[in-house]
Design brief:
The chain is an alpha+beta fold. Helices cover about 15% and strands about 30% of the residues. The chain has helices spanning about 35-45, 50-60, 120-125, and strands spanning about 5, 10-20, 25-30, 65-75, 75-85, 90, 95-100, 115-120, 140, 165, 170.
Length: about 190
């Protein structure tokens, strides 16, 4: 377990990949100060060579309504949230093409693996540059304003509250543990 030092008034990007409890559970957060680190995680998620992992990602993203959001935090305040689902397209073996912001699919086979297109250029156009000072490895911040979290009601960001820490790196809000065994950290710090 990493020991984190508290800081205030720092900026960072937070990628959230989550589903609310029910038939599946996930609450993964990736907090970095460089947008290329966020891109790396998205590519690991949606462009993975691991078919077993991609089958799970296919199910969560197309059938379960996974939250795929980028939170922009400037000076410890959420200033923007970008729903990334419109920029991700699933291509199924039967020829079906499905944008992730469309209605959920109901009848894909268990273990079905989609190929994904990630439109990084369009995503990047939506993302503001972070203001200095930036959150660094080994640090965490406490949000001073999280009211924008309400823009995605199913997000775990809604439940973080006044005293919740945003840790640099990868963490799981659902189980309160590291998820480093599932992803290669783009900035191991």
């Amino acid at each position: 377990m990493t020991n984190f030092a508290p800081v205030n008034q720092k900026s960072c990007y937070v990628l959230e990949l989550s589903v609310r409890p029910g038939g599946a559970r996930r609450g993964d957060f990736f907090t970095y100060n460089n947008i290329e680190h966020i891109r790396s995680i998205l590519e690991q998620e949606f462009l993975s060579e691991n078919e077993e992992a991609r089958a799970l990602f296919t199910y969560l993203a197309t059938c379960y309504g996974e939250t795929i959001a980028l939170w922009v935090i400037q000076a410890s305040k959420i200033v923007k949230v970008i729903d990334l689902r419109p920029y991700i397209v699933a291509h199924f073996p039967d020829g079906l093409v499905h944008k992730l912001d469309q209605d959920l699919l109901e009848d894909i086979e268990d273990g079905c693996v989609a190929e994904f297109d990630l439109n990084w250029e369009e995503i990047q156009q939506q993302i503001p540059v972070l203001q200095e000072p930036l959150l660094q490895p080994g640090e965490y911040l406490q949000l001073s304003d999280w009211s924008m979290a309400r823009e995605i009601p199913e997000s775990y960001m809604n439940g973080l509250g006044e005293y919740k820490e945003i840790n640099y790196g990868m963490w799981n809000e659902e189980y309160g543990e590291s998820i480093e065994e599932f992803f290669i950290a783009p900035d191991p710090g």
